[in-house]
Amino acid sequence: MSFLLSLAENWLHATFTDVSRYVIFAVGVWLTLWVVLAVPLAGRKIREGRPPARQLLVEFACSIRSILVFSTVGLLSFGLFHAGLMPGPYIARELGPVWFWASLLLMVVAHDAWFYWTHRLIHDRRLFRTFHRRHHRSNSPSPFTAYSFDLGEAAINALFVPLWMLVVPTQWPVAGLFMLHQIVRNTLGHSGYELFPATRDGRPLLPWLTTVTHHDLHHAQAGWNYGLYFTWWDKLMGTENPLYLERFAQAVRRSSRAAPVKAAEAA
């Protein structure tokens, strides 16, 4: 009975934490970029116009549903740890602070690979309608699109953390920082404003990082740009949109008086 109570408490805590992170960053990014800084950042807006309010509400509801899936799948980690079958957090603690930060970096890199390959998989036409259609209904994304997934896609994304912690010694605070990084990058990546720095010739200053334009193009033309944090898998596998650098340059060079790329043109 005490284990079931602990299980329920863990689920509620995980749900509350993830919902809080999502609300803080999705609402925060939307309020900052789409309301407070909408005028000064007008030249950095990637698409013309804004998604309708109904889309934002549906995305919010679907994202909360995805978080419920995350918390449920996350019980796998809690159960294995409670049963003594996942000693990784104890081992990681003994490895000290260097491993703490190294494991966080490795976790981010590994998740990018997991995301790229599972993302490509669910774009297969035999799987797309069941696993990934919901996310792409947001042709013009918003910060609320971050977790707007079908149930199957939510489960695939949720599985990464339990599998990683089962295989790689990782402290629980590292997993928490990883989730924080993930929602920050996710909400910014769907923000609709190109926020990443550029060189003088209009190329990404950090070309190995995905920019907002990089993922926005994926929503416009779904057969390209599958990466989440880094561009290297798309470059290696030839799946980077050939228009990416051109569109990025347009976004960072456009004056505040110029019109953003129309959604119809981007599609």
Secondary-structure topology with pairs:
Layout: H1 2-36, H2 53-82, H3 88-94, H4 96-122, H5 125-131, H6 133-136, H7 151-167, H8 172-189, H9 212-220, H10 232-237, H11 244-253, H12 263-266
Helix pairs in contact: 1-2, 1-8, 2-7, 4-7, 4-8
Structural features:
mainly alpha; 267 residues; 12 helices; single chain
Short précis:
The protein contains twelve helices and no strands. The protein has 267 residues and is mainly alpha-helical.
Describe the structure.
The protein has 267 residues and is mostly helical. It has one domain (2-266). Helices cover 65% and strands 0% of the residues. The protein has twelve helices and no strands. The protein has helices at residues 2-36, 53-82, 88-94, 96-122, 125-131, 133-136, 151-167, 172-189, 212-220, 232-237, 244-253, 263-266. The longest helix is centred in the N-terminal third of the chain and has 35 residues, at 2-36. Mean pLDDT is 92; it is low at 255-259 and 263-267.
How much of the sequence is in beta strands?
A: under 5%
Reading the helices and strands in chain order gives: HHHHHHHHHHHH
By secondary-structure content and strand pairing, the structural class works out as mainly alpha
Q: Rough shape? A: globular
Number of strands: 0
Whole-number radius of gyration? 19 Å
